[in-house]
Amino acid sequence: MTRTRYAVFGQPVAHSLSPRIHAAFADTTGIALEYTAIEASPDEFSEVLETFAAQGGAGGNVTLPHKEAAVALCTTLSERARRAGAVNTLVRTAEGRWHGDNTDGAGLVRDLTGRHRLDLRGRRVLLLGAGGAARGVAPALLDAGVQQMVVVNRTPARADALVDALGEPARVIARYWDDLRELGDFELIVNATAAARGDGSGFSLPLSLVNSMTTAVDLNYGEAAIPFLAWARASQCRNRADGLGMLVEQAAESFALWHGVRPQTDPVYAMLRERDVLLVTAD
Ligand code: NAP
Description:
The chain is an alpha/beta fold and 283 residues long.
């Protein structure tokens, strides 16, 4: 049986769960494929991707730090990738070009509304971060009906650029990290930063951000989610979630783009939760 080639590109990427997730989807759907993790520095990414295509690569996922750079390597983009200015899914076209899409936002919304049963409509949302992940989830949260989104990033110019790109000044505003105390409270706080990948000292956010309804979501999972979710627990956020559900759901969206079948996600989520990713939100 011919196994079509897929891969995730990033740096670092060795610990990515994507190969396991796609192997599990392949098993349950009966679709033969090979999915590997390919390390590429920002300087190497373009060349590594072309080599992969020359060797029969049919599609890929793009992770930190290449999501924004991948946009320039695609000949065509989906509407959601264009709005995000970031690509997490590559599809090789019949003409031998890359088509870029972004399934991160759909993955997060599906996890929040399906798995966690949250109604996002009318909610006030604080989005921490303005990198590739924040760019991916912001349009989908807006489409899910949030009432207002405040974007706060360590580097303010990046938050400004994201807000400008979203083009909804009445609903989306950028604010400085130092102003967090003056922003009021939020029903949803999304950590889309990679802060915990640094020294981990990351999260000292004001309690005033939290109300009786607040859900805190970290796009990170495992150890990288500990600082933010520990803050959320200490601040008595009503619900807390890590990024494992989003990871599985965005992978299923990519799988559907490549293979035309959306796999069941709950068994894969349960398998990873049991074996790999402790639920650090547990009391
Ligand atoms: P990225 O493009 O490199 O952006 C990193 C973001 O984190 C930027 O906003 C950056 O701010 C901020 N940041 C980094 N260190 C910080 C610190 N010490 N304090 C405050 N902010 C800091 O990365 P990304 O692709 O957006 O990914 C962000 C995180 O989301 C990663 O940890 C990734 O694993 C996770 N993620 C999870 C999923 C999932 O499916 N669960 C999907 C995508 C991403 P500056 O602009 O100031 O540098």
